[in-house]
């Protein structure tokens, strides 16, 4: 009889595939970002910093992501607050519906918005006939913020609702018996307790928006200047392919996400230390 | 009026009907619901309309667009490709993740901590960024996978890994796998036999949920499919994107079909979840 | 705010109060004689509450004296917690009025009632440390920082939690959490303290310890307290008086002794002690006469056993009923008491005897004679 195989051999297939298709591509991006015509250097980053075009892409990505995350977070917060105070049936129905819509993203979402708010969209025509609005520009920054916000809302609700459900009615009762009105309760108990969930949700929404590609691509192809569109165009576009430059831009994108996460962690730690003030 | 809501006794009886007509919370939930439903309703209306021009409501209702969609061979082929890739990726995930999760919950507890860190990576790195590396590594060289479905299957494995690992790990924790393995082996079953006869049946519920949810997630995947393979192996989402020039009614029918499909999958997953919970509490 | 106002005429607490009691709490002791003469601490008149079609409680009338410890005792769902919340102002009333210290507070919001409350699950604010949880009410009253710190420290000493002041609630055990919650409601010097099953979430040993501690603090502060529980033993051991609640009504308001030995009706008897309820016909052989009341309640310790004419246990009471024969079905050891279940012509009676030694236990099937102490028989209206 042959000796039994050591148990850790079972880990090898997983390790091989995960390395080849997750770690290796990441490593390649990190390394090739510094590869300037075969030499090590920061040339690609300099090029991005000096190019008004790339700076605009970064700026627009940041703007759309920050604005849509902020609006999405505010609407999700209000909705969760309302849901906690609504009846069980309405709450269950809304959570189920939110679950459904959170799956509705990317290309189908872009098409749905073209039908709703495109140049000949259903809502566009209706609003024009009612004389409320003259022209809806779905393909502008404002239009993209509307679409981004639309897909941030359900995600925000799903991430925030457990935290709101965890706010105990007894805390409110106890606070009111100790003399706190509604404002004092929210200022000293409600918001501080929710703060980690709010900060965490904002970070996830921001990362979600920064990395979004399918929706914009389906909507405007490559004609709107965002980081993800530029990265994709540099490796799979029609004209000049510059994979190393794409890596540099991709690395900047990842670093921005890491930065936001670190800021969030730092704020959380700070508020945990000073939470008693 | 900070205390209005906590004002207690002796509310005048006439106040009750007033609060019934205006409930700010129901109003907020209702308007968010309306905003979220609007694109879906418009698309559904468009998919069912004979013509919807400059009017508030469509001219007439028809199922013709759905019939046209389902009789288009290119669509059916794309659907089949999407299903095939998703099934392949999920099968690969099960085979790769199951032993890791099992070992992490029996022999190597440190592995669970490692895995919980590793599965965060797909969240930190957007698909566009991963594609940059994948395109370079597998466009040529010893493994020329780009342009074939074979690059999608392992790549999809990496993006469903977080769901799969968490689901399997949670199920393993719930059934206390170590005691079950010990008991089965004391009763004379070898480790492999114990796994297939005792552990696997107990994991079925939790793993099924993860499979349904991952499946709907993969059928909706566009970025990798478009950047790594494109029209050479046209999946559903890529097909939809390529149909942008077609009639709005036709693409609407396609969008609704896709949505209904993911809806059924998530519904099945959630039903399974409820089923598993009731079983567990019995 | 109103909760903190202290009558200038109030006298210092009696000298029997230990010197460890914080001065700020002492000076506001509501049981000071000056206040006692001004009437009851709490008066409830005709309180009623409905949820839709179902009545939660109705016709609640009660007076509580200054410094009294009152327990609202009743099974779950009897309306006792809702009544407590209505007194706190957390739940609206449909009818009736509440007076605290002579003032009508029926329409006041909870913030202005001068009422403190301790909840079953502590309700500590998770984002605040122990000291800041306790300081919360003082902060709302805009008490200056140094006075606030002094009073927080005093009250934390009172509940023996001064060493945990800088911990967060999640770092404390359940018993510690409840002591902090108690301190938090004491520090604002409420006129009345409400406690909603504060011991129910704790394990048995901690429950006993905290039970004694709460009663001791309440006595030394002379704090008027309304304590809700479903635990009969808790009610008997802690209270000056027990209000027994059943299906939204107060059945009986009496001291523990009276409630235990003289339950007013069947429901009261059913909830207190381990009364056997017999109808008049069933009870007649035991009593030796036919009771005029509809029902007769017998406590296990009011029944005496004899085996073959030899009395078991100690001294017999002066007036006993005629003996009735029965058969031991089984026995249960309750520490120093043995409780026998006796089959007695179709009815089952529980009889307590002192547990003297294992040899004297009666085996199942043993023939016995049962006598009843006629002075302890409760005749109840049907």
Main attributes?
heterotrimer; B: 282 residues; mainly alpha; MetI-like fold; 2 domains; 13 helices; 75% helix; globular; disordered N terminus; C: 382 residues; alpha+beta; Rossmann fold; OB fold (Dihydrolipoamide Acetyltransferase, E2P); 6-stranded mixed beta sheet; 6-stranded antiparallel beta sheet; 11 helices; 19 strands; MetI-like_sf (chain B); transport (chain B)
Structure characterization notes:
- The complex is a heterotrimer of chains A (277), B (282) and C (382).
- Chain A has 277 residues and is an all-alpha fold.
- Chain A has helices spanning 12-32, 43-50, 52-84, 88-102, 107-117, 122-129, 141-165, 169-177, 182-211, 214-220, 227-236, 243-274, and strands spanning 35-36, 39-40.
- Chain A has one domain: Orthogonal Bundle (MetI-like fold), CATH 1.10.3720.
- Chain A has twelve helices and two strands; from the N terminus they run H-E-E-H-H-H-H-H-H-H-H-H-H-H.
- A two-stranded antiparallel ribbon of chain A has the order 1-2.
- With 282 residues, chain B is an all-alpha fold.
- Chain B folds into two domains: 15-62, no CATH class; 65-281, MetI-like fold.
- In chain B, 75% of the residues lie in helices and 0% in strands.
- In chain B, helix 4 runs antiparallel to helix 5 (109-118), helix 8 (149-175) packs across helix 10 (191-219) and helix 8 (149-175) runs antiparallel to helix 11 (223-229).
- Chain C has 382 residues and is α+β, with helices and mostly antiparallel strands.
- In chain C, 26% of the residues lie in helices and 29% in strands.
- Chain C has helices spanning 23-26, 33-36, 80-88, 130-140, 145-158, 174-186, 204-221, 232-238, 256-261, 266-271, 280-287, and strands at residues 42-51, 54-64, 69-73, 95-100, 103-104, 115-118, 192-196, 224-229, 241-246, 249-254, 276-279, 295-298, 303-307, 310-311, 324-334, 337-344, 347-354, 367-372, 378-380.
- Chain C has a six-stranded mixed sheet with strand order 6-7-8-3-9-10, sandwiched between helices. In chain C, strands 14-13-18-15-16-17 form a six-stranded antiparallel sheet, covered by helices on one side. A four-stranded antiparallel sheet of chain C has the order 2-1-4-5, covered by helices on one side.
- In chain C, a hairpin with a 2-residue loop joins strand 16 (337-344) and strand 17.
- Chain C is elongated.
- Classes of the chains: A mainly alpha (277), B mainly alpha (282), C alpha+beta (382).
- At the A-B interface, helix 1, helix 3, helix 4, helix 5 and helix 6 of A face helix 2, helix 4, helix 6, helix 7 and helix 8 of B.
- Chain B: Pfam families: BPD_transp_1.
- Chain B: It is found in: Cell inner membrane; Cell membrane.
- Chain B: Residues 79-269 form the ABC transmembrane type-1 domain.
């Amino acid at each position: 009889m042959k000796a039994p195989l050591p148990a850790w051999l079972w880990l090898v297939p997983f390790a091989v595939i995960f390395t080849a298709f997750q770690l290796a591509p990441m490593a390649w991006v990190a390394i090739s970002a510094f590869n300037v015509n075969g030499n090590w250097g920061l040339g690609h980053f300099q090029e991005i910093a000096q190019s008004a075009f790339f700076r605009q892409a970064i700026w627009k990505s940041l703007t759309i992501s920050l604005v849509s995350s902020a609006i999405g977070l505010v609407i999700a917060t209000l909705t969760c607050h309302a849901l906690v105070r609504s009846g069980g049936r309405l709450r269950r129905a809304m959570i189920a519906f939110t679950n459904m819509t959170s799956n509705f993203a990317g290309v189908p979402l872009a098409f749905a918005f073209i039908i709703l708010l495109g140049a000949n969209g259903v809502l566009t025509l209706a609003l024009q006939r009612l004389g409320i609005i003259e022209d809806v520009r779905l393909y502008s920054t404002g239009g993209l913020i509307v679409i981004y916000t639309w897909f941030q809302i359900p995600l925000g609700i799903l991430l925030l609702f457990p935290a709101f459900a965890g706010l105990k009615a007894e805390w409110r009762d106890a606070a009111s018996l100790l003399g706190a009105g509604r404002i004092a309760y929210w200022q000293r108990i409600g918001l501080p307790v929710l703060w980690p969930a709010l900060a965490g949700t904002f970070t996830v929404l921001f990362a979600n928006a920064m990395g979004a590609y399918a929706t914009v691509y389906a909507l405007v192809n490559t004609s709107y200047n965002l980081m993800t569109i530029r990265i994709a165009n540099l490796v799979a576009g029609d004209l000049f392919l510059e994979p190393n430059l794409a890596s540099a831009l991709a690395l900047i994108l990842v670093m921005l996400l890491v930065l936001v996460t670190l800021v969030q962690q730092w704020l959380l730690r700070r508020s945990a230390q000073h939470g008693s003030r | 009026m900070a205390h209005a809501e906590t004002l207690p006794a002796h509310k005048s009886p006439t106040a009750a009907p007033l609060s019934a007509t205006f409930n700010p919370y129901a109003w907020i939930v209702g308007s968010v619901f309306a905003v979220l439903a609007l694109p879906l309703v418009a698309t559904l209306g468009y998919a069912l309309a004979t013509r919807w021009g400059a009017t508030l409501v469509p001219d007439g209702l028809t199922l013709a667009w759905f019939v046209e969609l389902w009789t288009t061979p290119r669509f059916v082929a794309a659907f089949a490709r999407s299903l095939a890739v998703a099934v392949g990726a999920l099968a690969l995930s099960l085979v790769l993740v199951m032993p890791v999760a099992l070992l992490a919950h029996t022999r190597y507890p440190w592995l669970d901590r490692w895995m919980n860190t590793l599965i965060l990576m797909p969240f930190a790195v957007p698909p566009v960024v991963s594609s940059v590396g994948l395109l370079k590594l597998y466009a040529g060289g010893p493994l020329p996978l780009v342009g074939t479905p074979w690059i999608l299957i392992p790549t999809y494995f990496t993006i469903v890994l977080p769901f799969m690992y968490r689901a399997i790990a949670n199920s393993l924790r719930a059934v206390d796998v170590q005691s079950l393995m010990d008991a089965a082996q004391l009763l004379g079953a070898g480790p492999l036999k114990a796994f297939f006869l005792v552990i696997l049946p107990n994991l079925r519920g939790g793993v099924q949920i993860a499979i349904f949810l991952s499946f709907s997630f993969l059928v909706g995947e566009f970025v990798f499919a478009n950047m790594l393979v494109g029209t050479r192996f046209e999946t559903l989402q890529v097909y939809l994107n390529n149909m942008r020039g077609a009639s709005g009614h036709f693409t609407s029918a396609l969008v609704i079909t896709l949505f209904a499909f993911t809806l059924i999958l998530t519904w099945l997953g959630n039903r399974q979840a409820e089923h598993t919970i009731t079983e567990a509490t019995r | 705010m109103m909760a903190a106002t202290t009558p200038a005429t109030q006298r210092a607490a009696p000298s029997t109060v230990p010197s460890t009691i914080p001065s700020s709490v002492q000076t506001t002791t509501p049981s000071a004689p000056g206040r006692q003469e001004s009437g009851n601490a709490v008066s409830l008149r005709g309180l009623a509450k409905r949820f839709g079609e179902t009545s939660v409680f109705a016709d609640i009338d009660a007076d509580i004296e200054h410094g009294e410890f009152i327990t609202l005792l009743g099974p779950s769902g009897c309306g006792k917690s809702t009544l407590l919340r209505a007194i706190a102002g957390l739940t609206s009333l449909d009818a009736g009025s509440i007076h605290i210290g002579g003032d009508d507070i029926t329409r006041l919001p909870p913030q202005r009632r001068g009422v403190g409350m301790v909840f079953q699950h502590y309700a500590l604010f998770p984002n605040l440390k122990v000291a800041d949880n306790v300081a919360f009410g003082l902060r709302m009253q805009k008490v200056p920082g140094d006075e606030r710190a002094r009073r927080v420290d005093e009250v934390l000493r009172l509940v023996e939690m001064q060493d945990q002041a800088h911990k967060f609630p999640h770092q404390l055990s359940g018993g510690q959490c409840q002591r902090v919650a108690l301190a938090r409601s004491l520090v604002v010097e409420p006129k009345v303290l409400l406690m909603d099953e504060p011991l129910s979430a704790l394990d048995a040993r901690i429950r006993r310890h905290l039970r004694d501690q709460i009663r001791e603090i309440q006595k030394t502060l002379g704090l008027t307290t309304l304590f809700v529980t479903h635990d009969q033993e808790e009610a008997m051991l802690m209270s000056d008086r027990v209000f027994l609640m059943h299906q939204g009504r107060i059945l009986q308001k009496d001291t523990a002794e009276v409630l235990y030995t003289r339950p007013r009706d069947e429901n009261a008897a059913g909830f207190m002690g381990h009364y056997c309820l017999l109808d008049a016909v069933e009870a007649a052989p035991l009593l030796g006469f036919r009771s005029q009341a509809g029902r007769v309640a017998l406590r296990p310790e009011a029944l005496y056993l004899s085996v073959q004419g030899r009395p078991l246990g100690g001294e017999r009471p002066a007036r006993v009923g005629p003996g009735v024969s029965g058969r031991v079905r089984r026995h249960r050891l309750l520490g120093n008491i043995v409780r026998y279940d006796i089959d007695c012509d179709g009815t089952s009676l529980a009889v307590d005897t002192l547990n003297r030694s294992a040899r004297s236990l009666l085996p199942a099937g043993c023939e016995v004679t049962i006598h009843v102490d006629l002075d302890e028989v409760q005749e109840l209206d049907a």
